[in-house]
Q: What sequence folds into this?
């Protein structure tokens, strides 16, 4: 009884809400007539998205077929979930899931921490030139492709490279940065942090500069030092943006960095460095196993969509950030 | 109103731009042709007519008789990134395409070209679009099912009659030399693809290459045993400043090719290519399943521990740092192909000195009684096929025969002056890729004639463009120290050349051939990628993270993860 009553009471509210968005029957046509040039402007982007983003999704059907290009989508035999079963029977695939999450999550954590820390330090520099100089220096690696950086890093991190020469000069043993399975993931993590934290710094610095200076002035009056100001004012004020950045990054957690890892890994570090994307590349592209490749891709897309939804939900709940 | 008009205009512009970008019409560019040397070609009747892809009745007479009216072949092929054309020439207008037109009245136009790595993807796209070119090439690296799928779906033309009636006798005689290869492209007695064959088995054995100036300064010691080799590597490291002993790349191919020293025959695992031979029960098994491989692993593990193998080998790209270290003088030993001189010759001579190039030797063995056996894999380099809609297969056979006539025949009309025009700067490969059926004896004959001509100084007996080219390049190195001549010189230009070493192996029966006499088998597709497991675990063993015995467990995993499928398939097709 109660629920029927509720439904009756809520109906006008829902109708009102619907009208606000869609304007009711005739209003849609009226609004379209008024705004059709804007719709026309959107049309090319809409068509492009339809063709290049939604159209290819049809190809995912090959994940359930023994696909061969000669037979095409319609002629290739249907095998159901066979490729998924085969995949999960492969130890090499199962470990890529763990590796992907491990590398990706630590990249997010350390990158966020480094960005915040550097933004706080940068904010304390009073000479504008120095501030801009250091900001530019840390921002530059963000624009360099991993193809180029991989070559540089292989030279720097080689057994006789500059870093190992330094380490050995200090009396320590040489570190096989790129060839020891236990070291390789950390090499990927810190090198990515080095490359990307400059970009994060810009975002956090923008958040810091938007804090009302009067709050700091009040704190000074109350006797707060620099460190206390950072702990009690800056970081809490940055809270929402930190949470927002973290949650948005979590939605991207399955992108552990194909460009970086593909250009730096080798079979000896597959056990800890092989991620879903590199495995997918070797299987689907190099090995021409289109169906299995599509199965991996489909699974990855589904998990990504779930993670993205969760992260957007939290971004809305915690930081009031909303896309839809 | 103005705003609406502007929006309309902009939107229209964007839509038009979008669709314009999606079309692939490219304007034809008229390029002036290079002046050709005088080639004695038959008259081309009907040359004033437009070339057609419709059926044109083949003319009476032998393969040399031109068509009565111009025939057009729409082709597709892989194209090397380093191919050069003379000024004004391009893939559709070059010495070879002009030759086809002038000699046979056949006009070849390439619908598309792409790199070797991309050819299979482009073919798949063409198949999906239902737009196969008239003639195309399936490379040996392609999916093993591709040819059979195309044939079974009726997408390939039956070339049997055209092959029997319009290919030259020379082309058809290749079947006598190698009767097995063409059978791989024959279904129910009908031929659906013409194999490209290969330059000869003489180019297959790998050699141990030593840096010449270091080797001579070390007293040119005879390297008959593995221990001799280890001593030489030690000498290079201790006395000549080598950072490590032997070049090993991240694909491990350079290392795996040393396995015959230990009686093991492995193949190129990185590309999922295994070497198959019978065990004591007669069952065909991959080289990694033989106990000799464990011996090789033990040596390689010791080599790494002793510093003979670079600690960074696992990150050394074979075409990157792997070769850079050689050129930079960091290593003086490498197991490699017979064409070492082309790969590294000019660079190392330019950067080090004129005697810093590497010279080839046969691989030593553990006891040193004989050299290690040369490994022979299935050598066919691909297959030329025609789409089912192609109307003029006779034209294809005639062009194939013409290319063979020019490049390999003793009656070649090419003069020494023509060589540059047709074959200079890689044009031989550039123009004839899909129309070149290689003479399986080409390199052996070439080696014998070129070496004799260099020894006697008489080049009058050289009869193919390839021979004249190799002779001239070798002389350029000998007379002028031109580093671009090192490739030919080290391959065949002296008694210690790579081919001379290989010839010794063939003459004395020190050869072992894989049982898998095809590139791959359709069943292999279900086996997946079995190479990753071997690559990963062998690296772990080499660096000492795992004991050699660990490989026995790895082998069990390999069988469980697809190896058994491969072994069963090989035994099904080639066993017994």
A:
């Amino acid at each position: 009884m109660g629920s029927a009553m509720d439904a009756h009471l809520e109906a006008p509210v829902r109708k009102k809400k619907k009208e606000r968005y869609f304007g009711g029957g005739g209003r849609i046509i009226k609004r379209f007539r008024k705004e059709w040039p804007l719709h026309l402007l959107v049309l090319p982007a809409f068509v492009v998205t339809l063709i290049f983003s939604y159209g290819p999704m049809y190809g995912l059907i090959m994940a359930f077929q023994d696909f061969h290009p000669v037979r095409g989508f319609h002629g290739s035999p249907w095998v159901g979930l066979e490729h998924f079963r085969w995949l999960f029977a492969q130890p090499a695939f199962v470990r890529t899931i763990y590796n992907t999450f491990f590398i990706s999550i630590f990249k997010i954590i350390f990158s966020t921490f480094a960005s915040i820390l550097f933004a706080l330090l940068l904010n304390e520099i009073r000479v504008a030139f120095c501030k801009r100089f250091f900001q530019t220096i840390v921002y530059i690696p963000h624009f360099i492709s991993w193809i180029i950086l991989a070559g540089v890093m292989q030279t720097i991190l080689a057994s006789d490279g500059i870093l190992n020469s330094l380490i050995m000069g200090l009396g320590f043993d040489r570190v096989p940065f790129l060839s020891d399975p236990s070291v390789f993931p950390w090499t990927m993590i810190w090198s990515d942090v080095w490359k990307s934290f400059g970009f994060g710094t810009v975002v956090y610095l923008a958040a810091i500069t938007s804090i009302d200076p009067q709050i700091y002035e009040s704190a000074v009056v109350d006797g707060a030092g620099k460190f206390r100001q950072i702990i009690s004012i800056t970081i809490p004020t940055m809270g929402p943006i930190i949470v927002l950045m973290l949650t948005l990054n979590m939605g991207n957690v399955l992108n552990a960095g194909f460009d970086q890892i593909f250009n730096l890994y080798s079979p000896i570090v597959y056990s800890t460095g092989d991620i879903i994307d590199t495995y997918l590349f070797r299987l689907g592209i190099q090995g021409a196993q289109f169906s299995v490749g599509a199965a991996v891709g489909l699974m990855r897309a589904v998990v990504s969509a779930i993670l993205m939804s969760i992260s957007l939900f939290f971004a809305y709940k915690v930081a009031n950030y909303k896309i839809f | 109103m103005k705003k609406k008009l502007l929006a309309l205009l902009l939107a229209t512009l964007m839509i038009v731009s979008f669709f314009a970008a999606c079309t692939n019409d490219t304007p034809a560019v008229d390029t002036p042709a290079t002046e050709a040397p005088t080639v004695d070609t038959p008259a081309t009747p009907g040359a004033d007519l437009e070339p057609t892809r419709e059926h044109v009745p083949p003319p009476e007479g032998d393969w040399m008789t031109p068509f009565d009216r111009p025939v057009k072949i729409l082709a597709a092929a892989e194209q090397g990134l380093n191919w050069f054309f003379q000024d004004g020439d391009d893939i559709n207008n070059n010495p070879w395409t002009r030759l086809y037109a002038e000699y046979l009245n056949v006009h070849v136009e390439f619908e598309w070209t792409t790199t070797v790595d991309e050819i299979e993807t482009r073919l798949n796209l063409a198949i999906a679009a239902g737009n196969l070119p008239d003639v195309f090439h399936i490379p040996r690296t392609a999916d093993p099912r591709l040819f059979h799928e195309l044939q079974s779906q009726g997408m390939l033309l039956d070339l049997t009659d055209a092959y029997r009636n319009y290919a030259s006798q020379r082309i058809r005689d290749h079947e006598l030399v190698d009767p097995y290869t063409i059978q791989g492209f024959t279904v129910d007695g009908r031929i659906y693809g013409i194999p490209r064959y290969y330059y000869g088995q003489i180019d297959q054995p790998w050699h141990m290459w030593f840096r010449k100036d270091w080797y001579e300064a070390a007293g040119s010691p005879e390297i008959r045993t593995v221990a001799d080799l280890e001593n030489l590597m030690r000498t290079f490291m201790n006395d000549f400043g080598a950072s490590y002993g032997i070049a090993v790349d991240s694909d491990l191919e350079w290392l795996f090719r040393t396995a015959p020293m230990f009686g093991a025959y492995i193949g190129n695992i990185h590309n999922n290519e295994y070497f198959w031979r019978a065990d004591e029960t007669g069952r065909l098994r991959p080289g990694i399943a033989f106990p000799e491989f464990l011996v090789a692993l033990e040596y390689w593990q010791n080599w790494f521990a002793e510093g003979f193998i670079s600690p960074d080998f696992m990150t050394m790209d074979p075409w990157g740092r792997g070769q850079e270290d050689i050129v930079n003088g960091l290593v003086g030993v490498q197991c490699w192909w017979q064409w070492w001189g082309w790969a590294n010759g000019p660079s190392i001579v330019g950067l080090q000195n004129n005697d810093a190039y590497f010279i080839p030797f046969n691989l030593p063995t553990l006891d040193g009684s004989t050299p290690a056996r040369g490994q022979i894999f299935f050598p066919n380099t691909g297959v030329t096929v025609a789409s089912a809609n192609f109307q003029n297969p006779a034209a294809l056979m005639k062009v194939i025969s013409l290319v063979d006539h020019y490049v390999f025949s003793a009656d070649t009309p090419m003069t020494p002056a023509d060589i540059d025009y047709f074959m200079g700067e890689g044009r031989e490969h550039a123009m004839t890729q899909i129309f070149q059926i290689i003479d399986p004896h080409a390199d052996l004959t070439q080696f014998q004639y070129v070496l004799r001509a260099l020894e006697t100084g008489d080049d009058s007996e050289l009869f193919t463009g390839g021979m004249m080219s190799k002779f001239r390049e070798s002389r350029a190195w000998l007379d002028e120290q031109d580093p671009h001549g090192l490739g030919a010189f080290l391959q065949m230009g002296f008694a210690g050349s790579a081919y001379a070493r290989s010839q010794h192996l063939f003459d004395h029966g020190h050869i072992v051939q894989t049982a898998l006499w095809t590139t791959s088998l359709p069943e292999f597709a279900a086996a997946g990628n079995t190479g990753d497991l071997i690559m990963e675990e062998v690296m772990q063993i080499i660096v000492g993270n795992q004991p050699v015995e660990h490989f026995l467990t790895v082998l069990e995993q390999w069988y469980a993860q697809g190896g058994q499928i491969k072994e069963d398939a090989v035994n099904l097709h080639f066993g017994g």
Chain B touches chain A through 42 residues (CB under 8 Å).
